[in-house]
Every structure is written in C-alpha cells, then in structure tokens.
Inverse folding.
C-alpha cells in the first residue's frame, strides 16, 4: 500500500464517519480547531483507523500527540511500516 | 394552593406514515394502513408474526452530527417530532432553553439494535476494542429523553418514565402534573420507539402477536373484531408541548386543547393480563378530577391493541364506566402499536379529530366481538361536535392510565 493510498483511506474514512467536507481534509488541518473534533471523536477515530488498516492504536502513546491531519497520516504510515518490517 | 391549568400548544410526530402531524392526519382520514411485511421478521426462526408498521426514511441530517452521533432511530424520531412540536407552539429558543422548560419523554427500553451489535462484537472477537464511544448513549433507558433535550437545549428537569406501552401517556400525564403543581412552566413530553424483532418476539412468545394475516398485512391488527389475533408492532414518536395556561395566554399562543384529568393505577394481580376494574377506575378518576360526567365525553380513544384479552377488558371497562353512548375507536388498525409512542401519537390524532370535529373509525373492525360489543364503536368516519376526549393507555407490568382533554375554554 502506497503512502497516497494510506492517506486516501484515512481521509475517506473520516469523511464518512465524521461527515467532513472533503475540501477541508488538508494535511495542515487541525483536528480540533479546524475540523471541530472532540475527545469522543478521537476515541471513534482510533476505532475507524484500526478497522481500516488492521493496526492497534488504542494504547499507542503517540496518538496523544496528534494535532493535525498530517500528523495522523504520518502516524498511520509509520505504524504500517513497523508492522510490515516486523512481518519481513 | 390552587393548581394551574395546563394546555397543549404544540404537537409533532414521526409515524409509520411518515413525518409530521399533517401526514399522520391525512393518512388516518383516508383510512390507510401502515402495516407491511418485514423480511427480517420472516427470517427469524419461530417468529410467527411477520408484519409491522415501519417509519419510512426520515431526514436525520436536519440534526447536527455532534448531536446525532449519540442517537439511534428512536432519538432521531423524537427529536424531529420535538422540533415540529416546539415550532408549532411558537416557543422561542430562549423559552426552550429556560430552566422553566422541562422534558418528559420515554421509550420502552434503550436501543435493542445497539445492544445487540455490542454483544455480537463482544462475542465474535472477545474484545471491546472496536466499540465506538457513542454506543452507550444509544442503549441508555433514557436515551431518547437525553438526546432530545441535548438537541433542543432543554435545561429544566428531564424525566424518562419508561412504562412499556403506556410510556408516553404517563409522560404526558406526569408533565401535566408538574406544570399544574407549578414545578415547570412548559414541558415537552411524549414517547418514542424503534422497531426491533425483540418486540414482536415478546408478544409472539406470549401468543399475543398477530400471525394469521402475514399474507394480507393491511387486514391486521383488528381491534375489537371477532377475528382479531393480536398485536402488530410499530415504531415512531409522538411529542406534545404543554404549558401553564396563563403563560400560553400571555404570549398569545394558539391553544389546541386543555388537559383536565389524568389518572394512573397499578393492577398488581397479574404482570401480563389487563385488569378491567383498574382500567375503569383510571377512566373514572380522570373524569372526577375534571368534574366531567361520562355523558359529557364526546369520544374515547381506546388503547385496544387487538389482543384477545386486552380488548375485552378495556371494552367492558368502558361499558361499565361510560355506558354505550360514547363513541369509541382505536387507531392501532391504521398505525399498528407504536409502543412507547402510542399514547402521545394517538392523543395527537385525537386532538386533530377535535379540531376537525371528525372521528376516525377503527380500521379492520368489521364484526365486533360480542364480548366487546357493549360500547358505541366508530366503524365509519363520523362528523360530530367534539369537545371532550378520553385517551386510554395500558402496558405490561400492570400499568394503566387515562388522560382527559377538552377544547380550551377561557372560563
């Protein structure tokens, strides 16, 4: 899976789950200040991402550091690389 | 301390016919049935009843996502109905969000579909890691009350008097008492429910669900009819706005009716079987509160769900208290049994009957059961002057209730 495919899946999943306007899904979009997400949305975001990629994020400390959509893209891409490296 | 008079100034509904009071009324006036075959019921082994009255698609997107994410269908229905009711009442946002405005709204239980999904996931994976944060808010017993209050911004008291099929009659009655006692000035009240196979399964297990009309669903239920064979489950919401009459008059609100009596009594002899004597006492008590005689009641909207025992118990109670001169009909033949919504939804339809001086007959009542035939059944639309209406509503668990309303008079 390419980085572009990962970004597309994350964005599409969030548009569907949180009804975001696709035009607002820019890497620098702040999840709270720009997209209006709150603490419960973050819980559900983790569930959505886990289901989309088969990764475990619930107890991942780095999740707490996510501020922008770009941060989220990077975390998921890193997590997938870790998993793929582990498999190899 | 004298009690305050309480009036109805707004109504809203999501019924099996669709969205809005106008839609409900037009379909009732035409004698339509909302009952249909439900394929998912056909697939459930052992379930003999395959018919229900289901709400057609509603536009849930009028509720913002941040509010809607906690809502199962029952809360979506109640919120849409509450928006209609408060708009009809002409309540300002300031009034709705004032501490003097409360909400009394109930369902039979929280969302069964959401509970089912949670346990399916838990059993399938042995894990809760994929459960969303919003799930619990849909399964709470007071989910539709909490969600509707959150969506409208209600800040007064929130009460959710779950009492199975009598839930919304109780909700309206309790709201009436709170305003009369001066505890609140305005109450948004009623009931809501969403369909799940659990409801018809419960009735079918007790041999009280309609099973003989699966191939001709619009022939059932058949309240008071000799060929009735049980309940047809349904869903929807009925919401009513009640106000202190003085407050409503001060703001020149359009008053739809006045509530003048409410009674609820328990019949502890049997969890499932209705008790004719207690039903009679509920009707009698609500009339004595208002100093109204049976002869002054122009119409009685029956609970009558088309069960064998329930219809007989209610008809005999009506006959004993009201005699055979008061016109009686049940709307279950059109709507099915909308469970927690039924009391308020049928009260809304009754207020429409009062407004138009037109009685809606009992659909599918062709041959009255001789054991029920002690009252004046409305079997054809009837145009008469309607000033006073009695509304019955009962529930499993020995819950019995009656609400008395009249056309509003300034005396």
């Amino acid at each position: 899976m390419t980085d572009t495919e990962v970004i597309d899946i994350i964005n599409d999943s969030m548009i569907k789950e949180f009804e975001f306007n696709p035009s607002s899904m820019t890497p620098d979009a702040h999840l709270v200040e720009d997209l209006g997400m709150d603490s419960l949305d973050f819980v559900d975001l983790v569930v959505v991402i886990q289901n989309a990629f088969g990764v475990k994020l619930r107890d991942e400390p780095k999740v707490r550091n996510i501020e922008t959509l770009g941060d989220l893209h990077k975390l998921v891409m890193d997590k997938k690389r870790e998993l793929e490296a582990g498999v190899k | 301390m004298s009690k305050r008079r309480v009036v109805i100034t707004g109504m809203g509904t999501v019924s099996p016919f669709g969205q809005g009071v106008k839609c409900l009324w037009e379909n009732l006036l035409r004698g339509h049935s909302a009952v249909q075959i439900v394929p998912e019921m056909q697939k459930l082994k052992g379930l003999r009843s395959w018919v229900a009255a289901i709400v057609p698609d509603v536009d849930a997107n009028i509720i913002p996502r941040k509010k809607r994410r906690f809502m199962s269908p029952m809360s979506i229905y109640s919120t849409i109905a509450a928006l209609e009711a408060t708009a009809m009442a002409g309540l300002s946002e300031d009034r709705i969000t004032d501490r003097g405005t409360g909400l009394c709204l109930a369902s039979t239980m929280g969302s069964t579909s959401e509970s089912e999904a949670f346990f399916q996931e838990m059993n399938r994976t042995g894990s809760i890691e994929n459960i969303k944060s919003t799930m619990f808010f849909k399964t709470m017993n007071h989910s539709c009350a909490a969600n509707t209050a959150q969506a409208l911004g209600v800040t007064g008291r929130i009460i959710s008097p779950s009492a199975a099929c009598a839930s919304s009659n109780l909700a309206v009655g309790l709201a009436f008492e709170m305003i009369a006692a001066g505890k609140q000035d305005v109450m948004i009240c009623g009931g809501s429910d969403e369909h799940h196979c659990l409801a018809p399964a419960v009735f079918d297990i007790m041999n009280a669900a309609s099973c003989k009309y699966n191939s001709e669903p619009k022939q059932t239920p058949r309240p008071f009819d000799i060929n009735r064979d049980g309940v047809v489950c349904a869903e929807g919401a009925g919401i009513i706005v009640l106000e202190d009459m003085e407050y409503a008059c001060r703001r020149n609100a359009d008053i739809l009716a006045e509530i003048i009596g409410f009674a609820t009594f328990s019949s502890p002899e049997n969890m499932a079987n209705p008790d004719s004597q207690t039903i009679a006492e509920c009707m009698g008590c609500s009339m004595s509160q208002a100093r109204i005689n049976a002869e002054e009641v122009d119409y009685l909207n029956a609970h009558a769900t088309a069960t064998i025992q329930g219809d007989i118990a209610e008809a005999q109670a009506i006959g004993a208290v009201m005699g055979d001169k008061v016109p009686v009909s049940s709307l279950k033949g059109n709507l099915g049994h909308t469970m927690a919504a039924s009391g308020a939804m049928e009260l809304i339809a009754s207020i429409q009957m009062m407004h138009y001086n037109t009685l809606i007959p009992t659909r599918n009542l062709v041959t009255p059961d001789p054991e029920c035939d002690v009252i004046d059944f409305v079997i054809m639309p009837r145009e008469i002057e309607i000033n006073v209406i009695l509304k019955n509503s009962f529930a499993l668990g020995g819950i019995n209730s009656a609400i008395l309303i009249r056309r509003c008079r300034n005396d």
User: Anything to note?
Assistant: DSSP finds three helices and no strands in chain A. Chain A has a mean pLDDT of 93. The CA atoms of residues 7 and 43 of chain A lie 19 Å apart.
